[in-house]
Structure formats: C-alpha cells, structure tokens
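User: Second chain of the day. Same drill as before.
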Amino acid sequence: MRLLSGPGSIVRAAMVRAATILVVASLVSTCVCLADSHADLLRAHEAFHNALRDADSPALLRLLDDHFTWTHTDSQVQSKSDVVGTIRDGKLRYAELRTDQETFNEYAKAAVVTGHSTRRYADAAKPFELRYTLTFVKSGRDWKVAAYHTTIFTPGAGQPLQVRLGYPDTAKLLILNADDLAVTHSENIASFAALDQKLITSATVMVPCPWFTEVAAYAKTHPEADLGLHLTLTSEWQTFRWGPIASRALVPSLVGPDGYFYASSPDVVKHAKLDEVEMEIRAQIERAKSMGVEPSHLDAHMHSLYASPELFGVFLKVAHDYKLPIRGARNIKLFQAVLPLMARGDPVPDAIFSPGVDVPPSGWTDYYVNLINNLQPGVTEIFVHLAHDDAETQAVTVDHPNWGAAWRQREVEAVSSPAFRRALEDNLIILIGWRDIKKLL
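Assistant: Same format as last time:
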C-alpha cells in the first residue's frame, strides 16, 4: 500500500473525511425524515379510525382532505361534508372499531394503506368485517385522508338463505306477511288478530294512511309484533285518498292535480323525481320511528319502488342506510330485474307468492293449500291482504273488486282455515318473520 505523505496529501485526506461525514450526515438526515414521515402516516391512519370510532367530527374535519370521498360496498359515495354531517347528527355510531393486517405504501406526495377492520354499530348486536383502502395526500407536513373505499364481508353470503339463518339446506322456511296495515280500521283489526293468533308472522304498515296512529298504538303495546313498512307512493282507491308525509311543497312531483299520490306505479315512474322520492320514503320511516314503530323490513305498496332501476336504486340506498332488509325474490320477473343492483350478502328470499285475479273466489283456500303442499326448500314469502267484508272496506274499495272487500275477507278465511294450518304442519313448514332476516344485517 502506498502511504500518503506531504502537506498536499494531508489536505486531500481531510477533504475526503469531510465529504464522507457530509454524505453520512445526509443519509442519516434522509433516514430520519423518512422515519418521521412514516411515523406521521401511522399516526394519521390511527387518528382517522379513532375519529370514526369515537364519532369525533372536529377531528375528522381536520383529517379529511376537502375533496375526500368514501365509497361503500353498495357504491354509495359520501363527501367530506356528508360523513361529518352523518356523524355529527348521530347517524353513524360504532360500539367497536378495530383495524389490523395493514399494508403501507408511501410515495412522494401520497400514500395508500390497505387493511382489515372489524366493527359493530352502536345499535347492532353482531360485528361485521370489511376490507378497506385508505388514500392519503401530503398537505404541507401533514397527511390528509383523500379517499376511503370499504368492502363489507358478509359471512356465508354465498350460502342458501335458510342456511345463513341457521337451518339445514333442506328446510322449508315461510314468511306470512300481511300488507296494507293502516289503510282502514277493518284492515287493522283483522291483521292484529292474525298477528296475535300467530296466523301470520309479520305485517307491513302504510304510514301515510289515516289509520296509522292505531297501528302505532298497537306497536307500543305489542313490542313483539314484527312490523315492517309498506312504503307508499300510490293511492289507488277512487274516493279514499292519501298523500305524502313530507310537505307537498317539497315533493310536488309525487302528487297529481288533486294533491294526492298518483293512482298507479307507471304514473310514479313518469312523474316522480328521485330526490323527492328519497325525501318522502325517509319521511315515512322517520314518522314511523317517531311513533314507536321500529321497522323490521321494507317493501313497497303496489311495488312502485321496483318499477324502474332508478327508483329501486333510491329504495336500496335508503334500506342500506337504515340497515333494513327489503322484499325480494328469485322467482318473479319484477324482483329478478333488480337483483343485479343488490349488494352481495343482501338477504333475498327464494320465492314469493300471492293470489292473482286468475284464482276464482271458490278456490282461494285450495290455492294456499296447494302452494304449501308444493313448497320447495328455501325461504318463501306469502303476502296477504286481510280485512273484513264490512261497510268500511266496501266503501273504501268501491268499484274495485280486485283486492276489494270480498277479496280481503277470503284472505282472512284462507289463512285461518284448518286445511291451511294442517298443510303447514304436514309439510314441516318452519314459520319465520322478517326480524329473523334482519339479524343477518
């Protein structure tokens, strides 16, 4: 090895040592900065989920970028103001929120975090799981949350509905639901009696109708009653009419020249504006809840909310917001058409039945008995319309024999008939309600 000697060599050696020290110092500084940046990202990730868990809207206001979006499993997108407002209003509350399996990928001015989360809503008995992708952007020295994408895992989503409910795949489960509660006093007393005698397992209520307060009183004294909402955008009778819960000035597209709902679903499709539809069905749900009716599920009077993909999209969004199952089936074209719009894991019964105009009056009970005798394994819903053939029902349904007074009286007689009850027993039918299905959500 050649030894350095002389003043010049000493100077060069000193310069090399100084340069080395500068490079090392620069590398150390860079590493410290990177470590600090990663630590900041970890803190921002933790702070975001803590703010969600604790419903801390001021913290979210600081953490979220102004262009923040949250995309949910059902493709619903919420902005920063939507999320903060939902939390501030108490509509999003978690009893539990944990994250794990995180992967951090940091870039110059952005970062992406993926992970798994287990959560339980404050009003829910069971937790749920989801995968999330969280996108951060650098704002000065701070990390801001720019986007959040969550995909809920539904345990057993691919299994038959009866299996998800805890029954073998050979089980025959049946929901017997009475529609149209609140339309008349006669409808109410017939349906209340059927609920009390366990002739039916659930019923759905028309909040805009005149006899709704009687249903609300019944619900308060019968908390075990499985009551859903028959969301109403139509008023079909000639001389007995109803209109929206929301102010008519706010939902003008939902009412005809007479100030009441339109008489048919095609009219709703033709005239209704989607934002007004959402306002009205939310108003009906909130009115029910304020009167003590906690709905087990949702369906739609005259199937008006299934009449177009756009209307169904609004319906589904609201149902998801309230975490309520909706009427559906796989055997009817009306419901088959909207199945692709539903989220994976949304509970959908296999079949649905109700007598049509092709069933002669003399064959009403035979229709139901044959239906039960031929019921297939899975979950089936039969929906009925119960009322007495009395002066009140006759006046309401004047000149409308289909679903009229005599029709509804036949329904009462059929579901209470010994032949129908015996068919249920002979075919080992398991009766369930919509509350059972709601537990899956």
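Residues 25-153 form a domain with the Nuclear Transport Factor 2; Chain: A, fold (CATH 3.10.450.50).

User: Great, on to the next one.
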